[in-house]
Amino acid sequence: MSMKELIEVSNRYGRDCEYVLAGGGNTSWKTDEFMYVKGSGTELATIDEEGFVKVDLKKLDKIWTAEYSEDEDLREEEVLSDLMASRFPSKKEKRPSVETLLHALLPYKFVVHTHPALVNGITCSEKGEQSVLELFGDSCIWIPVTNPGYILAKEVKDAIEKHMRGGKNFPLLIFLQNHGVFVSGNSIKDIDELYDSLFSKIKSKVNRFPQSENQSVAKEKTSSVIESIGKVFGSGQIVLPFSNSDIEAFSLSYESFSPLVLSFTPDHIVYYGFKPVYAENIDSIEQALFDYREENGVEPRLAVVSGAGAYAFGSVQSKVDKAKALFLDDVKIAVYVESFGGYQFMPEDKIDFIRNWEVEKYRASVGE
Fold first, then answer.
1. N vs C: which end of the chain shows fewer Cβ within 10 Å?
2. What is d(CA 75, CA 349) in angstroms, rounded to the nearest whole number?
3. What kind of fold does domain 219-366 have according to CATH?
4. What's the average model confidence in pLDDT over 95-115?
């Protein structure tokens, strides 16, 4: 029954774009001995029993007392090896979510981790920690931006222990700066009630909500931008133009575009790149595209042109669709952060870590 519940809650939250986009988020269900956790690269919206990995909780627990290399890259390899060794034999072909260790720390039957734009309007803001503590008090903990994997799980473990040494109950909500939220409960009803309450409390503090209604752009403008993209990257590019009133407002000038020039969360890096191309007019977009590739060593997947909307592009339709979805999510966050002291991007060293991290490259490749 619990596996059926796990699949149901995963699909329900995964299909709701207010909570999860593309391959983001993960879920788990545990007993005293084992845990089923989402496999890396799978999507919650369509996951079935085969998409989960069964892991041995006792083997995972041994990771905390193991000795690992002081070298960051080597340590992550060693931890990944032990994480893979915790799988039950029937699941050897799948890689458990990178956040498996974190799921295992939480003593509740169900964990649903999502990346809602509404929540990230707080986690990606200047007053994130202050706002979270004011809204949720002792029921939550705040985790400063941290590299994912073992180091994040260790940070959460230490924060939970500190929280409980203060005489507080085990936190039901874990907010991760520039990332999302972990919600725990012993039933799906508990999870749903916590999310409903969480959303309600945050919305009560929001001064301005995003405008998601599509806004058309003159065909001659989109045709000109698409032609420029083709000149720089080849005629085989799939190009998806889109716009709304928020995109139009943010793209008026370099100054107004400042809340969108870098990444808010790892998902944005994985699915549309660590930053978009911006051009103040159609005449300059071709040079801006060329300069981006030369300066960053990668081809961009998203461009914004003042007065002409946004453009997701690439050679694979699924990737183009995801780039659009994640940029729209980025725009929503840029609106929400206005209510919580303004925007705060991921630090550039954290962005570089995600861009070069093998685990995220694996997640993106499996999810293509």
1. N
2. 18
3. L-fuculose-1-phosphate Aldolase (3.40.225)
4. 95
Looking up tokens 């999502």 gives 114
The mean pLDDT of 212-228, rounded to a whole number, is 93
d(CA 163, CA 152): 16
Tokens at 249, concatenated: 């407002």
Question: Of 21, 14, 6, nearest to 53 (Cα)?
Answer: 6
Q: 120 near 333, Cβ under 8 Å?
A: yes
pLDDT, tens digit, for every residue of 120-131?
Answer: 999 999 999 999
pLDDT category of residue 201 using cuts at 50, 70 and 90: very high
**Domain positions in the chain:** 2-203, 219-366
Rounded distance between C-alpha atoms, residue 321 and residue 240, angstroms: 8
User: What separation in angstroms does the CA of 199 have from each of 18, 138, 282, 336?
Assistant: 10, 17, 39, 13
CATH fold of the domain at 2-203: L-fuculose-1-phosphate Aldolase (3.40.225)
- C-alpha pair distances (Å), 137 with each of 142, 160, 170, 203: 10, 14, 12, 17
Site of tokens 């660590």: 274
**Does 2-203 match 219-366 in CATH topology?**
yes
